[in-house]
Structures are given as structure tokens and as C-alpha cells.
Write a structure and sequence with these properties.
The chain is built from 5 helices and 9 strands, in the order αβαβββββααβββα. It is α+β, with helices and mostly antiparallel strands.
DNA sequence: GGTAAGATCAGC
DNA sequence: CTGATCTTACCA
């Protein structure tokens, strides 16, 4: 284990038992997606289902906004993205490439179409369940290291579109367990889009092996000829 | 009604 | 690098 992740786990352990996890309230989501995105880092997403409970710590996010050519909300509310224009603190889930699901956290005031795409999680609980749902995953770092993967691992689907993250006993809960966002998260351009590609609206936990593209650990590695 | 592109992933 | 797989949004 490298020094960075070791330090991170120690500080996390030091807080264990001292800090009760709290459900993030609606006002947490009243800001812009560019503000919310880095604040979501290290928050805990919990999903309850008949099969059991599964959760993960957010390690990579991307911001999307109504005035952003890359966003689904750019051309106004459509049947697909209308929840982006609703109240914050709910999930926007859409079908990607006809195959996968991708989950976003809606934010900003009602009427403004903004959301933060959850791109990667560090699996925390229900690992067995997550492995069952993702048979192709060879390692723990394959479980939630991508927007489609994390939805599969946590059992998120279109049925969760518009569901609240703020109800303590709800199926979906976003928790602050005392682990703050990094003071200096890694930041870069977004992945997989063809418009507004220059906006540096992607943030991740520097050094995390659970991010979607290995950016956190490959930054020191040069191109191999 | 037709169509092109897509906020991805896994396997070769 | 490519195929899978299908919904969405836009155009006629």
C-alpha cells in the first residue's frame, strides 16, 4: 500500500466511532454542479435492496450543467432528462449506449438542469453482493471503477430515476461519515464526451486505485513506447 | 417514420 | 481496437 492511501485509511479509522454518519440534507444540493462535484468526493452512497445492502465511497465525479453543450439538459427538459430540472438531492439515471445505466446527483434550484455524474466508487460494504452482480470483475478495483460498473454493482437502474437521496430510511441514501473531501482533489477534463471537451469538470481522489481510468495512479508513469 | 450518435464496457 | 445493443432526439 502506498503512503497516500495508507494515510487516508488511518485518518478514516481515527474517526471511526467518533463521528456518527449523517444523511446529507436537501440544502447540500442547492449549489451548482461545479461546486457540488468536488464536495461529493468521499461521501458514501448506500443502496438497500431485497438482496441486501451495498455501499461505496465516491472517488470520481463529473459536473454537467444546463449551459453546457455536453449535458443532456442543454436543449431544455426532455422526457429523459426532466429530473435534472427538478429538486436537488435526487438521482438522475439514464441508459447509456443501450446497455448500461449511469447515475447522477441532481443539484441546483428547480428549473435549472444540472447534475453530477458518479463515475467511480470505492466499494465499502456488500462486497459479496457487488461481486455477484458483476461476475466479470476480477478485482475489487473492477467493481465500481466506471459509471456503468457502479450502477451494476449497486443494483441501480432506471427504476431509481428521480429517487431521493435525502430520506434516512429510503432505498438510496447519501451519507457524510466524517471523511471530508480532499483539500486538493485531482482535476481534469471529462471522459467520453465530444462537446465542451475542454472544460475541466472532472474531479477524483488523487491516488485512488478505484477511479475509472487509473489516472490517480498512472500520473507518474510515462508513456510506454 | 428514419436515422445517427451516444456522459460505456469487455474481450480480443 | 472493436462489437454489443437500443434509446433518445432530431429531421423529414
Amino acid at each position: 500500500m502506498d503512503a497516500l492511501s495508507s494515510k487516508r485509511q488511518q485518518s478514516r479509522a481515527a474517526r471511526a466511532g467518533k463521528t456518527a454518519a449523517t444523511v446529507l440534507r436537501a440544502d447540500f444540493y442547492s449549489c451548482s454542479s461545479v461546486e457540488l462535484a468536488p464536495r461529493l468526493l468521499n461521501k458514501l452512497l448506500v443502496v438497500r435492496s431485497e438482496e441486501g445492502l451495498a455501499s461505496g465511497r465516491i472517488v470520481e465525479v463529473e459536473a454537467y450543467d444546463q449551459f453546457d453543450p455536453a449535458a443532456h439538459s442543454f436543449r431544455g427538459p426532455t422526457p429523459r432528462c426532466e429530473v435534472m430540472f427538478g429538486v436537488g438531492g435526487v438521482l438522475y439515471v439514464y441508459r447509456s449506449y443501450g446497455i448500461h445505466w449511469c447515475a447522477n446527483v441532481v443539484c441546483g434550484p428547480p428549473g435549472h438542469g444540472a447534475a453530477v455524474l458518479l463515475r467511480a466508487l470505492e466499494p465499502v460494504s456488500g462486497i459479496r453482493l457487488q461481486r455477484d452482480r458483476r461476475a466479470s470483475a476480477q478485482r475489487a478495483t473492477d467493481l465500481c471503477s466506471g459509471p456503468g460498473k457502479l450502477c451494476q454493482a449497486l443494483g441501480l437502474s432506471g427504476a431509481d430515476n428521480g429517487a431521493a437521496l435525502t430520506r434516512p430510511r429510503g432505498r438510496l441514501v447519501l451519507l457524510d461519515d466524517g471523511d471530508p473531501p480532499p483539500r486538493l482533489p485531482a482535476q481534469g477534463v471529462r471522459v467520453g464526451i465530444s462537446k465542451a471537451t475542454e472544460r475541466p469538470w472532472r474531479w477524483w481522489i488523487d491516488g485512488s486505485p478505484h477511479v475509472s481510468r487509473g489516472d490517480g495512479i498512472r500520473t507518474a508513469r510515462a508513456s510506454k513506447s
